[in-house]
Amino acid sequence: MIRVSHLFKSYGTGENKFQALADVNLDIPDGSFVAVQGKSGAGKSTLLHILGCLDDFEKGEYFLDDVNVKNLKDGKLAKLRNQKLGFVLQDFSLINHKSVLFNAMLPMFFNTTPLKEMKQKARNALKTVGLAEQENKTASQLSGGQRQRVAIARAIAGNPSILLADEPTGALDTGTSKQIMELFSKLNRQGLTVIVVTHDDTVAGCCNRKIIIQDGKIIRDSPNGEG
Ligand code: ADP
Ligand code: ADP
After folding, report:
1. What is the reported pTM?
2. 36, 37, 45: which to mutate for ligand 2, most atoms within 8 A of CB?
3. How far is Cα 68 from Cα 44, in angstroms, rounded to an integer?
4. What is the rounded CA–CA span in Å between residue 30 and residue 17?
5. What 3-state DSSP class applies to 45?
6. Nearest alpha carbon, ligand 2 atom 20
7. What domains does the chain contain, in order, with CATH numbers?
8. Per-run averaged pLDDT (10 residues), the chain, 227 residues
9. Record's SUPFAM superfamilies (predicted)?
């Protein structure tokens, strides 16, 4: 459960100060499938970085499952991020010369999961995204859509409750984008909260709720199907 109230975020100081988010209020219940849509520069990535506990903010409150994120020190914040959140980016961010299995295991090297359990979790995740047969290939041997599936497996392997995706289809063609959105939809039906940042109408239309950001403000927040 995400609860954001009166959130403000700016970059720079003095004359160069730029207000990237201004008074953002947002509730995202568990099990949501949400698109955050808006033009380039609207503040989508800034919001996603804050929701992902990757960036701080100067004013307002952010509760993640009743934890007040603002009060957490770096170590606790990293732990919360590790436990609850998975990230998917536009450019996949895989290590291309490493195997699919290694890539899917990667974030778990930063916690204390035993190797055997890491492998098992990564394999389960690869199965979920339909890549069980490809685990020994290197990432560079895969197509764009398959690479994004590996990135999704990597994001869900640690069993997060929320998946944050920043333009996950930005580097993919229309057909492949649709398949990736179908995969997100499947994961959502299995209980995962999925938040997708996109500038693309079709991609946003695959989600159950659409939040539109413009100039750092939410200008619209509605269930899909109601425009
Ligand atoms: P979006 O993801 O919607 O394209 P961003 O959240 O990346 O928008 O950026 C919102 C605004 O904040 C843009 O005008 C961008 O140039 C500015 N911005 C983002 N990051 C920084 C930064 N680190 N320093 C200064 N300005 C930034
Ligand atoms: P995304 O592809 O996620 O929208 P961007 O390309 O907007 O990311 O930004 C990439 C990085 O550059 C981010 O770390 C962001 O904070 C930073 N950034 C974006 N806009 C600016 C800016 N105007 N000045 C300084 N840094 C920026």
Report:
1. 0.90
2. 45
3. 22
4. 35
5. helix
6. 41
7. 30-56+83-223 (3.40.50.300)
8. 97 94 97 96 96 94 95 90 94 96 92 91 98 98 97 96 97 96 98 96 96 97 78
9. P-loop containing nucleoside triphosphate hydrolases (SSF52540)
